[in-house]
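Our preliminary data section would be incomplete without showing what the modeling component actually yields. Below, a chain of 281 amino acids is followed by its predicted structure, encoded as tokens that our downstream tools consume directly.
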Amino acid sequence: MNDMTNDVLVDVQRYPIDQPRSNIYKTVVAEAQQQLADDGCLVLREFITPLGRALFEAETEQVAPGAWHSESMVNPYNTTDDASLPIDDPRRMFHPHRAGFVAADYLADDGPTKQLWRCSDFHGFLAAVVGLGEVYTYDDPLAGVVVNVMRDDTDLEWHYDANEFVVSLLTKQPDEGGAFEYCPNIRESGHEHYQQVGSVLRGDRSLVKTFDLRRGDLQVFFGRYSLHRVAALRGERHTIILGYAREPRTIGPAARAQMLFGRTHPRHHEAVTNNEDLLTG
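Predicted structure:
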């Protein structure tokens, strides 16, 4: 682990990610695995040190004006309308999607965000928590690690993630609102449970869990299987999203980069030519 990550960013007294053979490490990992198994979402409170929080906040505050903001009508699956389906099918329930993202190439290579994202000890810790032998940085030149910027009086409506799991850090809390809401494991491999999803979209709260993230908390979330959203807020909200994948050199499709950032990178097109792994969804 490099000096910045070890001494400044992570509270290694509570979360000794650099000591995988220690009893504290094994206890933290076991408890984290249980929390993920129970409801698909893990929050490690005060994972980041006070000084680390200040560094992350300063970095995201600096780059936030460079966010690409877009608005479109989407369903939770990010698919096009299918007129052959019933009108009340959740795949035909579209809502405004307002998104703002700072791309990875706006973040300094020696800044705190990319330092943590690339930290080998952090990779090992995440792999243990999510039950994988190894995790790799999501190699997308724009979407690998991003800052989500939510503007005043907006929300992020119900959706699934393309990534199997998402790792995030809140760096700026809104003045009001902005709670994270999710339906644990409402989606299963081979079973979409469209009726339950439709009920949630129509306002049924019986399957919804909610909590407020705080600066310094680390969130690990299985967003491909749990429907989720960020509730309406006042003020501005900044979140770092650290992307990882099961395989090395995994990147996203050019069309998704165009939607999220208003541009693509030559690597998106090279990946298709070279038959590299593409993260789709």
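The two ends are 33 Å apart (CA to CA). Helices lie at 3-9, 23-39, 50-63, 112-118, 120-130, 194-201, 254-261, 266-273. Preliminary results of this kind motivate Aim 1 of the renewal.
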